[in-house]
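sry for the spam today, last one i promise. struct tokens for design, 332 residues
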């Protein structure tokens, strides 16, 4: 046999009893070592099921999951479910000892046979995750985001080959989240850790993932690199997962000056420029939504609404009439 794949699913199907359309169907994938793979898909598309199958928390009805060429054992075959070389963190990971300090929660994951190693590793992981300043605090006194950091530190300190993350940052506020995303990327680069993450935050998957995998109704509908997938998603479904885009039917598109024989036209807000050549102005500014460093302008023409990003604050006001230039669009 040629080089065994790292983490691989071959024609894996898992359906839940009673439900007809549930779980995942006929999934084949190869997770690359040392990379971050993100699984995206709408709620109920099978993301968590797939992650549990990769980890060995569930056995497939059909097909097989292999890690380094060996079949992963299911929960009925193993005393402690989950592959020994992997760790999983979810938003419900709650095995923290709330009344112990952060340091002890993390250190407790290692045996006490080598105290020096234990101390060094704990310090290393807390440093990597930017939480040495929290080391002496009780977990009970931490914010939700900080608790998630502790959970991730506990997973990482055991030096797993694979870290599985099932929407672990959901309750973490935005500023905190970006730091954590950056730290995890850094750890992946420094240590060669492999991460498989589930998220439905487009900003998160686009900035973190090396590889994207799109699930719909339990099936993989698209895979690729974040940048190319963002620029040219193969389906409207993927486009809507990755961006807050304008979706127009053919009639609405025609009002915007785009002719198509397909059903839908998708325009990302950043593909639209506002121009002020008076003669062609036919769009009315209906709303100006302040977003911090930019504004969303909602423009209307013959009942068609379109969202445009504007970086120049206060340049436009509700009621202004403007022209639009659409630089690029996609058709489905
Ligand atoms: P996601 O994580 O993408 O939201 P899940 O993998 O949790 O999706 O679920 C996929 C589908 O399987 C959904 O339709 C869900 O309702 C169904 N499902 C998940 N877990 C169970 C279960 N334990 N019993 C029955 N149906 C389930
Ligand atoms: Mg889920």
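last one done:
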């Amino acid at each position: 046999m040629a080089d065994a794949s790292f983490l691989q699913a071959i024609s894996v199907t898992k359906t839940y009893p009673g439900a007809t359309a549930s779980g995942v169907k006929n999934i084949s994938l190869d997770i690359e070592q040392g990379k971050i793979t993100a699984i995206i898909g709408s709620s109920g598309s099978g993301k968590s099921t797939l992650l549990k199958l990769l980890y060995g928390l569930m056995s497939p009805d059909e097909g097989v999951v292999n890690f380094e060429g060996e079949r992963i054992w299911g929960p009925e075959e193993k005393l402690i479910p989950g592959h020994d070389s992997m760790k999983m963190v979810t938003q419900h990971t709650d095995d923290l000892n709330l009344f112990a300090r952060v340091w002890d929660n993390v250190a407790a994951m290692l045996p006490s046979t080598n105290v020096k190693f234990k101390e060094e590793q704990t310090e290393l992981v807390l440093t990597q995750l930017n939480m040495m300043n929290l080391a002496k605090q009780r977990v009970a006194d931490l914010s939700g985001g900080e608790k998630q950091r502790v959970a991730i530190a506990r997973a990482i300190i055991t030096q797993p080959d694979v870290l599985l993350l099932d929407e672990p940052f959901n309750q973490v506020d935005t500023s905190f989240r970006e730091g954590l995303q950056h730290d995890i990327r850094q750890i992946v680069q420094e240590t060669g850790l492999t991460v498989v993450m589930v998220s439905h935050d487009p900003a998160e998957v686009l900035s973190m993932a090396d590889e994207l995998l799109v699930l719909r109704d339990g099936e993989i509908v698209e895979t690729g690199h974040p940048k190319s997938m963002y620029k040219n998603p193969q389906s409207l479904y993927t486009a809507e997962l990755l961006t807050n885009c304008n979706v127009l039917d053919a009639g609405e598109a025609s009002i915007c000056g785009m002719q198509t024989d397909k059903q839908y036209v998708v325009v990302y807000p950043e593909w639209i420029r506002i121009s002020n050549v008076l003669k062609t102005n036919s769009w009315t500014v209906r709303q100006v939504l302040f977003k911090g460093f930019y504004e969303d302008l909602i423009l209307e023409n013959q009942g068609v609404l379109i969202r445009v990003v504007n970086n120049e604050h206060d340049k436009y006001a509700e009621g202004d009439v403007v022209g639009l230039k659409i630089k690029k669009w996609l058709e489905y």
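The mean pLDDT is 93. ok im logging off now
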